[in-house]
Design goal:
Layout: H1 2-19, E1 34-40, E2 42-65, E3 70-75, E4 82-83, E5 88-92, H2 95-142, H3 147-175, H4 177-196, E6 199-201, E7 206-211, E8 218-219, E9 224-240, H5 242-245, E10 253-258, E11 261-270, E12 281-288, E13 297-314, E14 319-321, E15 324-331, E16 334-346, E17 349-353, E18 360-362, E19 375-378
Parallel strand pairs: 1-19
Antiparallel strand pairs: 1-18, 2-9, 2-13, 3-5, 3-8, 4-7, 5-6, 7-9, 9-12, 10-11, 10-13, 11-12, 13-17, 14-15, 15-16, 16-17
Length: 380
């Protein structure tokens, strides 16, 4: 009973508190306009740039091969060594090639001597032929009635025929003398070239990258022997889109940067026809290699299209919705949502169409606002 009395007393107290509570009245307050950062649409000259990373490579490389076969006699350089243009690098035994030159030089001299001999003999044989022809005419005038006269005439005619045959042979020899001499000279020159080919020389100032043959090794014709690289100038190879390629030209100056330093470069090659798979254009830029080295990653700044007196707004002022771009124009203290066309972006600016210069728009936090909202302008 005492528990029921306590419970009943508690309910009574709660009821009295509920009945004695003050009446709550709702108080409506007027919303204050939001303060927005505003900016005006401006005119600016914009030079768009694209930054692409690339790796430096030697501007010239050469993979040297022997054009003749032989055993390596001398190895004159090692990897990492700097060599000058024309410097000997490797040599094969040249004994057989030297003998070939000596032999063909002797054959050429022999041919020249034979040509001079045949010309002299031809002159003599032509005189002898003229004498025999006169002798045959004299015998013909004497008549051939007697057996003695007929015998002498026949003998003279036979000697004339043999003489004419010898003259014809010598004339042919003299007529083909130039051809035979050229053939001998060509054979000699080929032997001399083969002798020169027993020595590999550097085609330009370079650094030896690899030497693939040792002294005593046998090398076949066409076998790779030495790799050379030139680092006086270095190249960067890039693949760029067509709209960027349209703004570039051969010998155009561009800037490269690495480790916080800038280096001047120039365009030395630009493919006109794009790659059919990637639809990109091959670009090669050359830079002085005095303070750089192959394999280094550099950042290339490529100048793009120039926009004269372009209308620009901050990147933060544009609102992207459903693939379209909008801004909030401030008109008489209220926001008006307006569609724009973004032409390009440069750093923290966007080049746009659809706005007049001087128009005030919301500068940032545009996703937090709505069309028709009342605002108070505060310039950033």
């Amino acid at each position: 009973m005492r528990i029921l009395a306590v419970f009943a007393g508690s309910l009574l107290i709660i009821g009295l508190i509920f009945l004695s509570r003050p009446e709550i009245q709702a108080e409506l307050r007027e919303l204050q306009p939001r303060v927005v950062a505003a900016v005006a649409v401006e005119h600016r000259n914009i030079q768009h740039t694209t930054k692409i990373a690339g790796k430096l490579q030697p501007s010239h490389t050469a993979s040297l091969r022997f054009e003749v076969a032989g055993r390596v006699k001398r190895r004159l350089v090692e990897p990492g060594q700097r060599v000058a243009a024309g410097q000997a690098l490797l040599e094969v035994d040249n004994g057989d090639y030297l003998d070939a030159v000596t032999e063909n030089r002797a054959l050429l001299h022999q041919e020249i001597s034979a040509i001079e001999r045949d010309r002299a003999l031809l002159a003599l044989e032509e005189k002898e032929t003229a004498l025999l022809e006169r002798e045959l005419e004299r015998l013909a005038k004497l008549g051939r009635e007697s057996l003695t006269s007929k015998s002498h005439y026949d003998e003279a005619e036979q000697r004339l025929i043999r003489q004419q045959a010898e003259v014809a042979r010598l004339r042919h020899s003299v007529a083909t003398a130039t051809v035979r001499r050229l053939q001998r000279e060509a054979t000699l020159k080929r032997a001399e070239r083969n002798l020169d080919r027993t020595k590999l020389v550097s085609p330009f100032d370079a650094i030896v990258n690899r030497v693939l043959l040792e002294e005593g090794d046998y090398t076949a014709s066409g076998q790779l022997a030495i790799d050379l690289i030139q680092v006086r100038e270095l190249d960067v190879y890039l693949e760029i889109p067509g709209d960027l390629a349209e703004t570039l030209a051969l010998n155009q100056a561009v800037d490269l940067s690495a480790d916080g330093q800038k280096f001047p470069g120039r365009i030395v090659a630009l493919a006109f026809d794009p790659d059919p798979l990637t639809n990109t254009h091959a670009l090669r830029i050359r830079v002085d290699g005095a303070t750089l080295y192959p394999g280094k990653i550099v950042l290339v700044e490529l100048p793009g299209r120039f926009h004269a007196q372009a209308k620009v707004i901050p990147v933060t002022a544009a609102l992207e919705e459903y693939g379209e771009s909008h801004v909030f124009v401030i008109r008489q203290g209220r926001l008006v949502k307006q569609a724009i066309q973004v032409i390009a972006q440069h750093d923290n600016l966007r080049i746009v169409e659809g706005l007049d210069v001087g128009t005030m728009i919301v500068a940032r936090d545009v996703a937090a606002y709505s069309d028709g909202q009342e605002v108070v302008v505060k310039k950033p």
